[in-house]
Automatic annotation (TrEMBL):
Binding positions for UDP-N-acetyl-alpha-D-glucosamine per the UniProt entry: R93, R122, P123, I124, D125, L126, D306, V328
Gene Ontology annotations of biological process type: cell division; cell wall organization; peptidoglycan biosynthetic process; regulation of cell shape; UDP-N-acetylgalactosamine biosynthetic process
Catalytic activity, as annotated: phosphoenolpyruvate + UDP-N-acetyl-alpha-D-glucosamine = UDP-N-acetyl-3-O-(1-carboxyvinyl)-alpha-D-glucosamine + phosphate
GO cellular component: cytoplasm
Keywords linked to the UniProt accession: Cell cycle, Cell division, Cell shape, Cell wall biogenesis/degradation, Cytoplasm, Peptidoglycan synthesis, Pyruvate, Transferase
Name of the molecule in the record: UDP-N-acetylglucosamine 1-carboxyvinyltransferase
Enzyme nomenclature, EC number: 2.5.1.7
Organism: Salinarimonas soli
Family label: Belongs to the EPSP synthase family. MurA subfamily.
GO terms for MF: UDP-N-acetylglucosamine 1-carboxyvinyltransferase activity
Pathway entry: Cell wall biogenesis; peptidoglycan biosynthesis
Function: Cell wall formation. Adds enolpyruvyl to UDP-N-acetylglucosamine.
Any Pfam family hit: EPSP_synthase
Amino acid sequence: MDQLVVRGGRRLEGSVSIAGAKNAALPQIAAALLSDRPVTLSNLPRVSDVASMLDLVAGYGVHVEAIGAHQARLDPGSAQNGAAHYELVRRMRASVLVLGPLLARFGEARVSLPGGCAIGARPIDLHVKALAALGAQVDMEGGYVVASARGGLRGARIVLQNPSVGATETALMAATRARGETEILNAAREPEVADLCALLLAMGARIEGAGTHRILVQGDQPWRAASHEIIPDRVEAGTYGIAAAITGGRLELEGARLEHMASVCQVLESVGARIWPGDRGLMVERAGALKAADITTEPYPGFPTDLQAQFMALMAIAEGASMIRETVFENRFMHVPELARLGVDVTLQGTTAFVRGGRRLKGAPVMATDLRASVCLLLAGLAAEGETVVGRVYHLDRGYEALDRKLVRCGADIERVGA
């Protein structure tokens, strides 16, 4: 099992290429199961979650052809219904996204309850309720979600209890094959959802309201072959922006889109970073001292939960006290004890963390507990004195493409070693 050895105190400077968004790629790979026409996806990130999702749809008979490093052609013409092996599904929670397409296309689906990061219960009840609203019968049997709609799905009004990204995507994909019109209310507004809509439109679906809380889908349209380029990863871009700030550096984020990162950029500027658009993306620089700030994680367009841990590492060295409130996942502070090993002064009270900044961090062995926690520890290690050894970096590889190599090219001292 690999570890990352981080020797802190280096200022980062240079350019990093932002990969395609993992959280956009995963539902789009699942969406290929909806039709029998080929789908070509470009700007696919080379991360283990994407590889697992490609393996998952291949297990249903989708022919996956790699075209270069970041492009794949998915031909679902010979796809068949079945039950994915648990060894594939347990790797990531996003595997539940095949449930809607399989049910919509074949009239039934059997998908193992998913695994992934241990950052909270994250139940799939909203997915189930969305499918039930479309006329499906959904049950749990022996660790599997079993759904059927023998007479086909029917368009309906779906009111989501909260704007869940995954449930919105499940409802969207299933609705494209339902008879009649489907209205999805309180839909997630994330750019990744809008990007899924863009792919579905290219495949032949009729969708209105992408990027809003109300999405209309006219179902049962003829399918066609499609090609689509996945949007850049706003979480990866935000992570590198924090890396520039935490090291007092300057980075060009090639491909980053300001319109997807307004809340993140606003917070980074409030703590002392300078951000401006460049010819190829965004520039992020920190020239002066860092100031503490309070944040609350919220659904888009609010501050993303996927950057909460990284922001905590930044606040550890900022002057003053900050309050970080987590409202999306109930157990997303598992990185706190590991940060404390580096000298971070943080106190937890329920879903709120209080960070007293201005501390001198010192390197220590730490253990990643989930994807974002792993990169949070790496960022703290960049600012710490001495050597930090981050274990379980397979979490990191699930969502970041060559992050250690990209940082090394910008001046970081990081070595990947086998445990």
